[in-house]
Specification:
With 186 residues, the chain is mainly alpha-helical. The chain has two domains: 83 residues, Orthogonal Bundle (Arc Repressor Mutant, subunit A), CATH 1.10.10; 87 residues, Methane Monooxygenase Hydroxylase, Chain G, domain 1 (Up-down Bundle). 62% of the residues lie in helices and 8% in strands. It contains eight helices and three strands. It has a three-stranded antiparallel sheet. Helix 4 packs across helix 6. The longest helix has 30 residues.
């Protein structure tokens, strides 16, 4: 990938910034995190992670320093720089859309996770309100375009549509639970 300093970051790059924001990370620790089930959408090979870290370093979003205090073989530990914090916080603050409800729920949950230590609680609550509105809008669109009771649909088609609506309801339940618990934790 050509390194255009003005290009938007990829979802994987934002996710790496989010991981680094939780605590300093080595390239190996990032690869290990991406090997876990929740991050399997991306290739986490050394051939993708290390060049990405170099690009983020070149853009002055992160800085790497050799750490040999705990191991015999030094490893480079990355931390966020102020510009990286700004870029990450802007990404986290973007309000969810219907697309994140329908296609990118895992990304929305990662943003929620990283926002815990990055954004003020009121901003996270507003984000949850927007996520619920996007879920409501998506369900309305889904129901009006794909009425599960339509006589034109087969039983299997009706059941698939009903499963999608159940997923939206589960997401909305989680949003309401998250908002309630955040408000109680004040």
């Amino acid at each position: 990938m050509a390194d255009d300093p003005n290009r938007d970051l990829t979802l994987m790059e934002y996710t790496v910034l989010g991981l680094i924001s939780t605590e300093p990370q080595s390239g190996y620790s990032i690869i290990t995190v991406f090997d876990r089930e929740v991050y399997r959408r991306w290739s986490a090979s050394p051939g993708s992670i290390y060049p990405m870290l170099k690009r983020l370093e070149k853009r002055q979003l992160i800085a790497g320093e050799l750490d040999n205090a705990r191991e015999t073989r030094p490893r480079k530990m990355y931390r966020l720089l102020p510009e990286g914090e700004r870029v990450l916080d802007e990404w986290l603050a973007v309000l969810p859309t219907k697309f994140e409800v329908s296609e990118e729920r895992d990304i929305a949950l990662l943003k929620f996770l990283f926002a815990e230590k990055r954004l003020p609680r009121e901003q996270v609550l507003a984000w949850l309100d927007a996520y619920e509105k996007a879920a409501n809008d998506y369900e309305y669109m889904f129901r009006t375009q794909r009425n599960p009771e339509s006589r034109d649909w087969s039983l299997h088609q009706q059941l698939v549509v009903e499963a999608a609506i159940m997923e939206i309801n589960m997401l909305r339940t989680w949003i309401q639970l998250a908002r309630s618990r955040l408000r109680m934790a004040r």
